[in-house]
Amino acid sequence: MSRTTLALVGALSFSCCINGWVSRPHWRPTESRPSVEMSQWELRQRFLLDLMLQVHKPLLQQELIDMGRELSENPADYEEGSWPLLLDFMDDVHRGRVLRPYSIYSQLRENLPQQLLGVYRFLVLAKNWSTFQRNACYARIRFNPVLFVNALQLAIGERTDAKDLMLPAMHEVLPQLYFDREVILEAQRVYWQQLAPVPTISNKRSWIKSLGSIVYPKMLRPPGVEVELMPADPMVIEVTPLGTPLSLDVELNGYWSRLLSRLMIADNDQNPDKSTDHLLLLHNIRQLAALLQLEELATDTRSEQLIEPTLLTTGGVPYGATDLNTEDVRQLINESIEELHRLIDKELTRASKMQAVWTVSRVIATKYWQICRHLSQAINGNHVQPNLLGMATSNLRDPIYRLLILQLAALISQYRLSKTSSHQMKQLQLRHIRVGDLETYDQLIDTDLINLIDQQLLQTQRNNLQLLRRRLVARQFRLNHTPFNITFEVFAPAPVVVLISSYLLPPGPIKNQPRLLIDSFVSHLATGKHQLERHFPTSPNGYTLSDLYEAKHPLNAVNACSFPNHLRLPRGTAEGLKLKLLVEICPWHSGELKSSECEWSARVGDWTAHNVASALLDVVVQHRNINHF
């Protein structure tokens, strides 16, 4: 009988520890495994993650505070010959002109681009990792958190000693900029003890613990003080179901913010190759407009519809909405577009047809901020207050901004060269295209909200994530697609290098229709028949903050110049959204690729190259309302 009882208790206690309950920390930094020596990569990655903790609050980790106490003003600490580029920034720092913590960040401030460029240079031009650490800590302590994070994002991608590192998703670093106020306020009401209970110290032992000490000898029990068992499932804050409109996609909003930060820096730098960033802006305007228009087709709703601005800024000030009526807004945008149209036409009189793409991209990119400021002043006045136009992370929520994007895309399409079949390689044939089932669905995803929790930093001045035994997450839907293939059968009469691009279009004539680029790749074709298959898997969930803390080696980063992969297909319908698939094949010449990081997003040939083969076929995009983890 006693043996049976012991076996039963042991089995129950074991199942309690592994089936839905945990007694070890979810995150396990250095403090929880002192016997394991961390690699240099882990130390560098951990530094960035610690820097991002509570980034909207003062830095409280003593080691990082010590690193950032002084401004590095020694020219020898920066890349050779780069010190003159930092002189204006250093002067702004001494005069207190750089945006401070708790101030209102607005991308429409006329001096913000220069400030963002200054902080970016401060980080990217640091000569070695040690100087970069000191500068990053200094910026983290003294500058506006959004300004700092935006500059750090871009600097990490450019530094050779940081290219293998990864920052957390921006909607986890600053969730206040991406989630509605109800989610933020509910997360802030969660106590630290609900995720990491205080260890209990008592001389009294219950009969259950006494029995457990017999079942589990000391050598088999986990080290450390005894703590209360907690559910292994995360604590979930449900995001109010609003469907999955593009404007509420947190990954897309984060991508758009990075894109505009990059444009802001490029337009204010002294010697950059701006053409790539200008072309990239045009490509993304066209992509976003196409997605918005195809979404309208699927949902039968207009993009101008207002989504209630219930966001909070990092300072807790609500965003302001506008009382301007739709017709007045439309008139303002039309006037801005007409002025842009006249300016482009004037510039094109001095440019050749082949230079049209450069001219259109340069004019739109350089006038972009002026147009946004003009709209904001007309709608919101001159006083500085949070509004949806002023923050890239909230731009897509603003129906005024979405209308501007649609109008810009329509303007761009007017200057697109009509593609004709090339006489060269005339015998290259696109004989057949097979398309797998195209299906989208609403997927549940979790976002770590630990940056909204105090973490007891104030009391301990150190990272306490090693104490966590539960995650706090926001759970919401996002659009995704099931795996599908596209197969091309091509015949080449001679060896050739080609670019094969695939677009989705609405039904009807293809001229001036929005084109959603879903795939583009280069293929080296030998003489003869070829079968080329492209596979598009379901987009996986991105790495969360907890994933990065537990990583032991570099993780695969997503392409910073591409739309999030889960938006490769537009939303379908239950009956099947009828679209056209357009496939174009054109010659590929080395040197057309302006940036390897951006693949073909900023490709000039999309405007100028002549097709050697093309095909158009009917496709259907289905949508299923399923939950897929």
Number of helices: 18
Overall morphology = globular
Alpha carbon gyration radius: 27 Å
Alpha carbon gap, first and last residue: 44 Å
Structural class: alpha+beta
Name the average pLDDT: 81
Low-confidence stretches: 11-19, 28-35, 592-597
Helix content: 25-40%
Could you give the order of strands across the largest sheet? 3-6-5-12-11-8-9
Q: How many strands appear in the DSSP assignment? A: 12
Order of helices and strands: HEHHHHHHHHHEEHHHHHEEHEEEEEHEHE
Q: How is the biggest beta sheet arranged?
A: 7 strands, mixed
Strand content: 15-25%
Report on this structure:
The protein is built from 18 helices and twelve strands. The strands form three sheets. It has a seven-stranded mixed β-sheet with strand order 3-6-5-12-11-8-9. It has a three-stranded antiparallel β-sheet with strand order 4-7-10, with no helix packed on it. Strands 1-2 form a two-stranded antiparallel sheet. The relative contact order is 0.14. Residues 11-19, 28-35 and 592-597 have low confidence and may be disordered. Helix 4 packs across helix 5 (112-124), helix 5 (112-124) packs across helix 7 (145-158) and helix 12 (274-299) crosses helix 14 (356-380). It has helices at residues 2-18, 40-52, 62-67, 83-94, 112-124, 129-142, 145-158, 170-173, 181-188, 207-215, 250-268, 274-299, 326-348, 356-380, 399-414, 457-460, 545-550, 605-608, and strands at residues 21-22, 230-231, 235-238, 429-435, 438-448, 472-481, 484-492, 496-505, 516-525, 528-536, 577-587, 613-624. It has 629 residues and is of the alpha+beta class.
